[in-house]
Amino acid sequence: MLDVWRHFKFYGYRRIAAYSQQTDGPKVSEYMTLKLMRELGIKSRMQKRYRKGDC
């Protein structure tokens, strides 16, 4: 999981869990992924969305 997060820093726990289901590695549920991410201190980096101005 740590390797996935290092490669895709913007992935949250749902995407990491889905990625683990698709690969040959161990299958991890969303709840377990969230729990492990909290233990390791991993957080996804949110990207700011572009907002058009009101001008």
- The H/E string reads HHH
End-to-end distance, in Å? 44 Å
What is the global morphology?
elongated
The major beta sheet can be summarized as: none
Please work out how many helical segments DSSP would assign: 3
**Beta-strand percentage range:** under 5%
Rounded to an integer, what's the Rg over CA atoms?
14 Å
Unreliable segments of 5+ consecutive residues: none
Query: Structural class per helix/strand content?
Result: mainly alpha
Mean pLDDT: 79
- Quantity of strands, as a count: 0
Considering DSSP H and I runs of 4 or more, what fraction of the residues is helical?
40-55%
Describe this structure in words.
With 55 residues, the chain is an all-alpha fold. 49% of the residues lie in helices and 0% in strands. It is built from three helices and no strands. α2 packs across α3. The longest helix has 11 residues. The termini are far apart.
Topology readout:
Layout: H1 2-7, H2 13-22, H3 30-40
Helix pairs in contact: 2-3
State the main characteristics.
3 helices, elongated, mainly alpha, 55 residues
Q: Summary?
A:
With 55 residues, the protein is mainly α. It contains 3 helices and no strands. The model has no long low-confidence stretch (mean pLDDT 79).
